[in-house]
Amino acid sequence: GQQLNQSPQSMFIQEGEDVSMNCTSSSIFNTWLWYKQDPGEGPVLLIALYKAGELTSNGRLTAQFGITRKDSFLNISASIPSDVGIYFCAGQRFGANSKLTFGKGITLSVRP
Amino acid sequence: DTAVSQTPKYLVTQMGNDKSIKCEQNLGHDTMYWYKQDSKKFLKIMFSYNNKELIINETVPNRFSPKSPDKAHLNLHINSLELGDSAVYFCASSQVGRGRTNEQFFGPGTRLTVL
Question: Does the pLDDT value for residue B27 go beyond 80?
Fold first, then answer.
């Protein structure tokens, strides 16, 4: 089945730095979502994107729906320690019966 | 609080037992899901119900049987538990058909350990 590729598996940054993560696929998706998962918790929706080229912000987070519909990226600016967690991208293809395909996630560590 | 809730949070049991996990959402959503997250944190859809009707049934052993008594509840019953069933199981919900169909909201998870 189609996969969403997220790499690297882990990222380590200094507090205050900006970080960018991307998510790519060989298939076209018509919806892209970004989730964050804290240890021992369920994933929390950060940003949802519905149109190719769409750029959406949520506080220090900005995400974009790639123009080819095969990728999306998430930027976190001025990172803080509570940004630590696993960031998942998820996508839905047209007609996929609301099924989301998830990437394998990127574990972000922020050094104080 | 409006949320997706699951019980129990932790479940430790012996191989061969039968167990159930319950999920409830008070978000007024019409679609609910079960996901399995393995030790590598990979999230995989198992089942989805829309208005009590099964709409997604991935390749899951038939020892797993979901049941949705109403659109606010989705339970997961597992028969003859195996070691490989150990994982975190997440329930999620969304409202399909109003444009924002895929904004799925997740519960806190149930960590199942099979000994």
Answer: yes
